[in-house]
From TrEMBL:
PROSITE patterns: PROKAR_LIPOPROTEIN (PS51257). This is DUF4270 family protein. Residues 1-20 form the signal peptide. Keywords: Signal.
Length: 227
């Protein structure tokens, strides 16, 4: 009888573990439209986009990051890139915690160098935990570029991309915060962005849209980066 009770108890534990669920938020760019280009001579911009999700626990401690990228892609005036051109990223949203979604759009001058960095970023297909030493850097509000640097450093890429950027390269950057409570109220947050500006007499205008989509999923095994 005792053995039967023990077996039943073990079975309940297994079922409980197999049914464990967590809240996961994904970042999906839905469109990017080039309305006005920075490059007036070539009439095309070479674009690179990097985006990250950084999650924080209920104590406001950064715990994990997920990174994604797009490009290097040539864009012409009036050209629009749709959702299927962009790879989504996702990350668990801790209970009573929050996440910060970051996106940075850049006009590339050094194609080879930018492509090398993108190759490194794309080695990681899942979220990774933030080392304790780096988590301390996220205790205060960061700019989008600093969030990007934090994410790249956590993945081992370091600060290569952010260090190469200057004011003339940067088309636009944005942080959006989503709390656990907000995600429960609205499972699909749409974020419209407008990047407009000018450098040395030339102007640019881009429209970027992305969604933060939250759902409850069964807990799966975390994938490791490719070697």
């Amino acid at each position: 009888m005792k053995s039967l009770k023990l077996s039943a108890y073990c079975l309940l534990l297994l079922l409980s573990a197999s049914c464990a669920k967590q809240t996961v938020t994904s970042f999906q760019i839905t469109s990017l439209k080039a309305l006005d280009l920075e490059e007036t001579l070539t009439r095309k911009d070479e674009l690179l986009m990097a985006y990250t999700l950084t999650s924080f626990d209920a104590s406001n401690k950064a715990v994990a990051v997920s990174t994604g990228s797009w490009g290097v892609q040539e864009a012409k005036t009036g050209q629009e890139f749709r959702e299927n051109a962009f790879q989504p990223i996702s990350i668990p949203l801790p209970k009573n915690g929050k996440l910060v979604a970051t996106v940075v759009l850049v006009e590339v001058d050094d194609y080879a160098s930018a492509q090398k960095t993108l190759t490194e970023i794309r080695r990681y297909h899942d979220y990774i935990k933030i080392p304790a030493a780096l988590a301390e850097l996220a205790d205060v509000a960061l700019t989008p570029l600093k969030y990007l640097s934090l994410a790249l450093s956590a993945t081992g890429v370091g600060f290569q991309l952010a260090d190469r950027l200057d004011d003339d390269d940067l088309i636009g950057q944005n942080n959006t915060e989503l709390t656990y409570q907000q995600a429960l109220l609205s499972a699909d947050l749409k974020v419209p962005l407008t990047f407009k500006g000018g450098h040395l007499g030339s102007s640019f205008h881009y429209e970027l849209n992305y969604d933060l989509r939250t759902q409850t999923v069964r807990v799966g095994r975390t994938r490791k980066p490719k070697s």
